[in-house]
Each structure stands twice: as C-alpha cells, then as structure tokens.
C-alpha cells in the first residue's frame, strides 16, 4: 500500500544527512547544470523538565522531518543536550525529541525509580535563514503504561456499491506488561478537534495550547469492581463500535474486513429511536458521557484516542470550547492517562494535533478515508511467545498503517 510504504520511509533512521538525497534529486533533475543548494547548520538544544536534577537531556533522540519531502533525519543529543544537523535545506520541518529514562537514570534525575519517556514537539518550524541560536526543545513526560493501545481501526470501509460504512471501527487494548492487569474501570475517550484541513475553513482546536491535558468528546468505561477483568501479559481486548460480524450480518457490510461478533465489548449508545443496535453476543461498555451521533464514531480522518484511569470520573471538569455556543468537552489531565494514540488526516496535519506531546509526540495517517486500512502498534521484541510492543509515547514511531485490520492478531493482513 502507498500509505504504509510512505510511512516506513518517513520514519526510517538515516545515517546520512537528510540533504544528500535532496541534492542528488536536484542534480539529477538539472542534468549537468546542477545548482548548489544553500543549506544550514541546525542545532537543537534539548532540555529536561525544570523539576529535574540537571537541565541537559543527553542522549535524547531528535527527529527532523521535512513536511515537504517527507524524509526524516536523526541526531542524538550530546552531553550538553545539543543535537546538530549539519546540512539542512530551507523548508518547513517537524522537530520531535524523545528520551527514554530507565529506572536508574530516572532515580538520579527525579528521585523516583520509575522508568519514563520524555517528549517534545515543534509541529511547524519554518527554516528560511541560518538560525543564530539553537532551537530549544523542552521535554515533558509521562510514565510508560502497562496497557497500550495496540490497534485502532478508524478509516472504516466501503460497501460493494461504493458507499461508506463506519460501524466496523474498533480499538484494541493490549497488556504490554509482565504481570496480569485488571481492566476494570478503565476509561476510553476520543480527543476533541479536527484531524486536519478537512474544509477550507477548518482550524486546529483552540484547546490544544493547554498542554497539560487532553480534551475529550465522549467517554466510555469498562465495568467491573476491580479484579473481575484480567488481561494476561501479551493478551488484549477488542472494543467494537458494534459487536457483530460486519461481513455477514444483515446490518453489516459484505465488504467490511472484520468480524467483531467475538469482541470483548461494544459501545451501545442506547437512545429512544433504537438507532444503535445492542449486539446480544457482546457486552456493553458503560456510557459515561456521549457527545456525538448515534454511536461512538471515531473520526475517519484520524482520531485521538486515550485510555485513562480515575476513581471519580464524574469529578473531571467539563469545558465549553472557546468560540462555540454549545460544544462541551471533558478535560483529562495528562497525569491520569495510561496511553494515547493519535492519527491525523495526512502528513501535513501536524499543527492539528490534539493529544499533548507529553503523551504522544507524533501521529500516523492512513492513505484516505474508508480504505479498510488500520493503525497497528509495532512489535518491539518477543520474549518467549509474548510480544512486547513498541511504546515510546510517539505514534509516528510506534504505529504503522496496515492494509487491513488484525483484531487480536499481528499477522500480515
Ligand atoms: Ca454501537
Ligand atoms: Ca451488546
């Protein structure tokens, strides 16, 4: 598929500078009359959060991604936290930094022996002249969660006659830890805001500047009293929009890629007109707040999804979205988020990010809507038969777009 190979090439780690390919391309295009392209030295100063024992984020990995050419160069910060890109073409770039602290280093820097990942993101840095000072990336972070979002099938599918069908969406949550995790009470929600320049007048959500929280539209909860719903290490649960065999059910879509009649849960949005069907084979999540249509529809252009825990979900603040007259969202503080995922419309949509960089420093994108593609977390390593999934709190690095969804699976679709 175009999108998956495109994505692979976008995040590949290159040992040679980003500019080499571009200059070769220009030279080839111009034949013998190759022009000399001006390049800049770009320094990025990566700093730790101000509460840490020292400021320099040595060892941080800095990704410089051209939004025009879709190539990424990588540099590692030195002992002073400085990362250098020696030859950068003028243009528009996404600068993203990340640093994984193991328990020992976290102890030295924070006083707590808890591994964590730190991230920073500058989604739109235009470089037209040689900078006189380094670009600063101040990292912020969250702990590495045991539960991770393994797959989000959000693009949905087309019917045999070319119509659109979105009831087959699902989210899969995976136990990435070495111990059993109980999912009783786990909350799942979708981030508020558009996924990109969908219409000429579309603008990013005005709430994204508040980086300490993610603002969500609807919230659902897994029932249970605390120890009723175990997930073994390496196992997962599937949350369906509708828990039916979408390929065979009379209410389904023969061209859908999934059977979700054996999903663990579904979002049943009970309403007087009965518009959402209650599948008898799949138990229902608890609806905490629903601010949408007749079902929990994830944005087919690209959703932000968070899973989180709090003992009192009713105590979370609700906020009126600035500039609207009746659009309310719920504020979920970063500290209670277990894992986050973000997809946007396309590679130029970084400025539309809704999930704070501290939770997710990147995003993925499908080749379009209703493509039957899916976003799946990559496997980092396998221990025995247990897959350990990549979790750097950066969907660009952690996820890939695959041609068909693979609920509970990791095979080639
Ligand atoms: Ca439903
Ligand atoms: Ca049901």
Feature tags:
binds calcium ion, 2 domains, 413 residues, globular, Immunoglobulin-like, mainly beta
Largest sheet: 7 strands, antiparallel
| Overall tally of domains | 2
Radius of gyration: 22 Å
- What proportion of the residues is helical, as a percent range? under 10%
Write the layout of secondary structure elements.
Layout: H1 2-11, H2 18-30, E1 40-47, E2 61-66, E3 72-76, E4 82-88, E5 91-101, H3 103-110, E6 116-127, E7 135-138, E8 140-143, E9 147-153, E10 157-158, E11 164-165, E12 170-175, E13 181-182, E14 187-191, E15 213-221, E16 230-231, E17 236-240, E18 265-266, E19 286-289, E20 304-308, E21 318-320, E22 328-333, E23 337-342, E24 374-377, E25 379-383, E26 386-389, H4 395-398, E27 399-402
Parallel strand pairs: 1-7, 17-18
Antiparallel strand pairs: 1-4, 2-3, 2-5, 5-6, 6-8, 9-12, 9-24, 10-11, 12-17, 13-16, 14-15, 14-20, 15-19, 15-22, 20-23, 21-22, 24-27, 25-26
Short summary:
With 413 residues, the chain is mainly beta. 8% of the residues lie in helices and 34% in strands. It has helices at 2-11, 18-30, 103-110, 395-398, and strands at 40-47, 61-66, 72-76, 82-88, 91-101, 116-127, 135-138, 140-143, 147-153, 157-158, 164-165, 170-175, 181-182, 187-191, 213-221, 230-231, 236-240, 265-266, 286-289, 304-308, 318-320, 328-333, 337-342, 374-377, 379-383, 386-389, 399-402.
Describe this structure in words.
With 413 residues, this protein is mostly beta strands. It folds into two domains: 2-143, Immunoglobulins (Immunoglobulin-like); 147-402, no CATH class. Helices cover 8% and strands 34% of the residues. The chain contains four helices and 27 strands. The protein has helices at residues 2-11, 18-30, 103-110, 395-398, and strands spanning 40-47, 61-66, 72-76, 82-88, 91-101, 116-127, 135-138, 140-143, 147-153, 157-158, 164-165, 170-175, 181-182, 187-191, 213-221, 230-231, 236-240, 265-266, 286-289, 304-308, 318-320, 328-333, 337-342, 374-377, 379-383, 386-389, 399-402. Strands 14, 15, 19, 20, 21, 22 and 23 form a seven-stranded antiparallel beta sheet that branches. The chain has a six-stranded mixed beta sheet with strand order 18-17-12-9-24-27. A five-stranded antiparallel beta sheet has the order 3-2-5-6-8. The chain is globular, with a radius of gyration of 22 Å. The model is unreliable at 1-32 (pLDDT under 50). One calcium ion (CA) binds at residues 241-242, 266-269, 276, 295.
